[in-house]
Every structure is written in structure tokens, then in C-alpha cells.
């Protein structure tokens, strides 16, 4: 099975700031366990996590330990970092609990937003999100970024807006990243999200310039005032790479079955979703990569510094689960969540129950079939100009309805690069954006869904500048100039023993470039 994608882009004038990034592909977990060396070092963690990255991971993981890893489950061999989040689980009506299949491991995006970005220093670690949260403060959906007031820009509000639960349905145009900040209920998922849910978390990228960690693992970092872009607050002027985790959970395998989805921390709302990071990079090496690997394609293969291993090699890299956790069964099927974590709906803070605590209740699972009132209804919304970020509702990729069956299976993934630097109707070499996923079951599918840019409109001719200076429109709070770009994408999918079928997708998007690009 083979597929060719050609992307031609006509972009008018102006190169904005190069919104360079790369997508660290961690297609396999290094493990699944009640371990959290950041929040609960040296002890069994409260709840289970899916963990990706360096093999030297355990109850007492340190930077030095990670650096001494024998391997990594991610594709860049120099990256021994540890990336983890709570797993998503399904609790059947009778209480039997099992992990939801995780599709493609995790993608950890390194987005190079801002000026003078510093590599993560040795020993740096951080947490994003708050496991206890069960409610949301703020309007639903988010007001346009240009209209955000002080209440939208508190660190608490920004952290809540940094979560996303993207309803995956490749038959529809994609939703924008971080559009919905809660986990939709089962009924909604069954009805709308045929390809599962993509859990997203954006990490703060503004550092106080001195602390490698802080008591709550958050206070040494801050969000810029538009979550993924904007201005760093006073005292946090040092820019680090912006980290963004994407994890796809195939909730669709439970379609029609009574029960409830719950994150491993007992959170059915998603408001308590969180992500953890301990750097496992050599500082000078990462600084070189940050300085030189500025290709806006996002492909790790475009960074000549990186030694890339195959998905299969990465999948062999697993950490050793400590003896004390040998009896744990975080994948299930089991009676309740691992660690006997109770489901806590909120809306107040969830209680943290430490393992070993005398007062630890038994699972005490009470089947809950409806979501708490704190979770609003928010219908499926196609990413539009107003909400499409640079990465087009699903970082840099999206779903497409009219793809031929041959490539609609997820077997071929064609990222659609976002043209940022002016390109004059320049066809990309066919080898560039095509990723063929091997059929071997050992290799999970990449998190990227099949093809297609988010906004499908009629072609309207070549791009041009359509505005300058203080444009304040949907989703844009600051910028220098606005240009119209036209992107033509042709996907050609040769079917065996059939004549080639051609599909032309033409798209137009308005794009803003500013000092920090769109953000
Ligand atoms: C609970 O229900 C699920 C789904 O029907 C089933 O697979 C599982 O075996 C049941 N568990 C028990 C303990 O009966
Ligand atoms: C949200 O949770 C916080 C922390 O427990 C609490 O103070 C607040 O009252 C909650 N809000 C609502 C609407 O319940």
C-alpha cells in the first residue's frame, strides 16, 4: 500500500516568526504503573500512569538516572526524558475496570515559541494540571483570545484552558486543539467520537530562570497569557520549549456498552487531567536542537542531529516495574481502578488518598451514568478560522471525509505541513510527508489521524496580505500582518490492480504572523 501526497503552497509575502516545532514520537509506553517520581518520589503513587521515554524510570527517578537509561521508548535516541499522564479507563456497569486502548502511544510536541529559547536545564522537571480539580472556572466555550480579560489570564484559568479533549472522528473535519476542556460523557462519545478521544495538555513555557522544580512542581513555571502563546509574566521571562502532550484513547471499542470512562486518578470529568515531565536530554545537545532544528514540518527526521530509531525498537524499551508493584494490575480487567482509587465527581476538590493510608477506602465504586452538572454540554465544532490554531485542530493534521478507502484505514498517514515561510507553488518531494505504518501489530499507529487540513473551502486564488497591524479578530490577540494563504493538497492513492484514484483537496486559510506567530 502506497500513497503519495503532494503539497503545493502559495503564500503571499511576509515570513512570520518561524513557528518551528518537532513532534517527539513515543509510539510505545515504557510502562503502565502507579509510579510518579515527581509528585510522590520513593513511594507507590496514588494512581496509575502511562509512561513514555527513558528506561531508567522508577519510584526514585532522577535526571541523572534517566540520562543513564539504556534505551528510550521514544524515537529519538538522545531523548531519555520521561513523559507521563494518567491512563483512561472504562468502568463497566458491574464495576469491572479496564484500560482503554491507547492508540499510538504519546506525541510530545516541542514547540519553539518565543525568542531566545533555552534548553531544559539539567534536573529540570515540571507538572501541568491538577489531579484534584473537578470543576472549571471560566466561560464555556472559551471567549475569543482577543477578548480574554484578567480573569481568563490568571495562572489557574490558563492551566484549565491548557487541557483539551478532542473528539476524534476522521469522517469529519477536526476540532481545534484545546477547544473542549473536559471529557465528554459516554453518550456523547458514543454518538460523536467514532475514533476516540485525544487527551491534550499544554505545559507552561515561561520559567523563573532559576528553580529546577518547586514544591508543587508548578510554581517555577508560568503560562504566557494566551496559554500557548502571548507574553510571559514578570519574573518568568525565560522561555523554554513549549511542551504539548497528545494521547489518543480509543473509546469507541466500548460503544454501546453501559459504563463510564474515568481517568486513573478517579476523574470522570477531565478537569483533573495532568501531565508530568522530567527532562532526560543532554543540555548542550538539546540547545543545539532548539537552535538548529527549526524546520516547521515538525518531523523529527528533518533534524539532522537526531538519531532516530524505529517504532519497533522503541517498543522494546520498557522500564522494570518495582517489586512492590508486582501485584498491581493497572491494565485490568480488574475490580476498580488500580490503587483502589475512588471515582470522585466533584465539583469540589477530589480528596487525595495515599496508598497505605489507614483511611484508604476500598474502591467503593458507585456506578455513575450521568455526568455531574459541572460538565457542560459542548457540541462538536469544526475548527474554523476562529478557533483553528496553527496546527489546525489536531496539531498539524486533521481528518478528511472523502479519502479513498485505501488510505482511510489509518494505514497511511500524511501530515499536512503548515506553510509558514513563503513558498512559491513549490511541490514537495513525495518522500517528505508520507509515513507508512507497518502492518505489524507490534507497531502501534501514530497518533496522527489520516490526512487533511482542517478548513475545506473553495479555492480562492493566490494569497495576499489582507490586513496589517492591530487586527483583533477571533483567536488572535496580537499580530503584525495577516496574510491569506492558499494550500492545495493532492492525495494520490494507488489501489492495487485498480486505476489510480485522485483526490484534490483545496483549502484556504487566513493566517496571522506576529512576533510570536499566531500565538
Ligand atoms: C462485568 O461486565 C463485563 C462486560 O460485560 C464482563 O466482561 C465482565 O466479565 C463482568 N465482570 C464480572 C466480575 O462479572
Ligand atoms: C471548584 O473547586 C474549588 C476547589 O475545591 C472550589 O473552591 C470551588 O468552589 C469549586 N467550584 C464550584 C463551582 O463548585
From TrEMBL:
Q: Where is the composition biased (Basic and acidic residues)?
A: 509-519
Q: Does the keyword Transferase apply?
A: no
Q: Where is this region: Disordered?
A: 496-519
- Any idea which UniProt keywords this protein has? Signal
Q: Where is the DUF1996 domain?
A: 36-281
InterPro entries per the UniProt record, alphabetical: DUF1996
Signal peptide positions are: 1-20
Where does this protein have compositionally biased stretches of type Basic residues?
497-508
Concerning Pfam families, the annotation shows: DUF1996
- State the protein's name: DUF1996 domain-containing protein
What is the organism of origin for this protein? Melanomma pulvis-pyrius CBS 109.77
Amino acid at each position: 500500500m502506497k500513497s503519495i501526497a503532494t503539497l503545493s503552497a502559495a503564500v503571499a509575502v511576509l515570513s512570520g516568526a518561524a513557528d518551528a516545532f518537532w513532534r517527539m514520537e513515543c509510539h510505545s509506553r515504557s510502562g503502565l504503573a502507579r509510579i510518579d517520581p515527581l509528585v510522590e518520589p520513593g513511594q507507590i503513587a496514588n494512581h496509575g500512569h502511562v509512561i513514555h521515554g527513558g528506561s531508567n524510570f522508577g519510584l526514585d527517578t532522577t535526571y541523572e538516572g534517566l540520562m543513564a537509561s539504556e534505551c528510550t521508548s521514544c524515537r529519538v535516541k538522545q531523548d531519555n526524558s520521561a513523559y507521563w499522564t494518567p491512563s483512561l479507563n472504562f468502568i463497566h456497569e458491574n464495576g469491572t475496570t479496564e484500560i482503554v486502548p491507547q492508540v499510538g502511544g504519546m506525541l510530545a510536541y516541542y514547540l519553539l515559541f518565543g525568542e531566545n529559547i533555552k534548553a531544559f536545564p539539567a534536573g529540570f522537571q515540571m507538572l501541568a494540571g491538577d489531579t484534584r480539580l473537578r470543576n472549571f472556572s471560566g466561560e464555556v466555550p472559551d471567549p475569543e483570545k482577543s477578548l480574554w480579560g484578567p480573569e481568563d489570564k490568571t495562572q489557574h484559568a490558563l492551566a484549565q484552558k491548557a487541557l483539551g479533549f478532542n473528539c476524534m472522528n476522521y469522517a469529519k473535519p477536526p476540532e481545534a486543539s484545546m477547544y473542549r476542556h473536559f471529557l465528554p460523557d459516554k453518550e456523547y462519545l458514543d454518538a460523536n467520537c467514532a475514533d476516540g478521544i485525544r487527551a491534550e495538555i499544554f505545559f507552561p513555557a515561561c520559567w523563573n530562570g532559576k528553580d529546577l522544580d518547586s514544591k508543587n512542581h508548578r510554581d517555577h513555571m508560568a503560562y504566557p497569557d494566551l496559554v500557548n502563546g502571548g507574553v510571559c509574566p514578570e519574573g518568568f521571562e525565560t522561555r523554554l520549549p513549549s511542551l504539548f502532550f497528545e494521547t489518543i484513547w480509543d473509546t469507541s471499542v466500548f460503544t454501546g456498552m453501559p459504563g463510564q470512562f474515568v481517568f486513573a486518578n478517579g476523574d470522570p470529568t477531565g478537569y483533573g487531567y495532568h501531565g508530568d515531565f522530567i527532562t532526560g536530554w543532554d543540555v548542550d545537545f538539546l540547545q543545539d536542537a532548539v537552535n538548529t532544528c527549526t524546520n516547521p514540518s515538525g518531523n523529527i527526521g528533518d533534524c539532522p542531529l537526531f538519531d532516530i530509531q524505529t517504532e519497533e525498537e522503541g517498543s522494546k524499551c520498557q522500564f522494570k516495574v518495582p517489586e512492590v508493584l508486582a501485584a498491581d494490575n493497572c491494565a485490568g480487567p480488574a475490580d476498580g481502578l488500580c490503587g483502589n482509587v475512588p471515582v470522585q465527581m466533584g465539583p469540589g476538590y477530589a480528596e487525595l488518598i495515599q496508598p497505605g493510608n489507614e483511611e484508604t477506602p476500598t474502591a467503593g465504586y458507585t456506578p455513575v451514568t450521568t455526568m455531574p452538572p459541572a460538565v457542560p454540554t459542548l457540541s462538536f465544532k469544526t475548527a474554523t478560522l476562529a478557533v483553528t490554531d496553527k496546527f489546525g485542530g489536531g496539531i498539524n493534521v486533521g481528518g478528511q471525509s472523502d479519502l479513498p478507502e485505501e488510505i482511510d484505514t489509518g494505514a497511511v498517514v500524511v501530515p499536512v505541513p503548515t506553510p509558514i515561510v513563503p513558498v512559491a507553488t513549490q511541490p514537495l518531494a513525495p518522500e517528505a510527508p508520507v509515513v507508512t505504518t507497518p502492518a505489524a501489530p507490534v507497531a502501534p499507529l501514530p497518533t496522527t489521524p489520516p490526512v487533511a487540513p482542517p478548513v475545506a473551502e473553495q479555492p480562492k486564488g493566490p494569497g495576499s496580505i489582507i490586513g496589517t497591524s492591530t487586527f483583533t479578530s477571533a483567536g488572535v490577540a496580537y499580530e503584525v500582518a495577516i496574510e491569506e494563504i492558499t494550500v492545495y493538497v493532492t492525495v494520490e492513492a494507488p489501489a492495487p490492480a485498480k486505476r489510480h484514484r485522485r483526490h484534490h483537496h483545496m483549502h484556504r486559510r487566513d493566517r496571522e504572523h506576529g512576533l510570536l506567530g499566531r500565538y
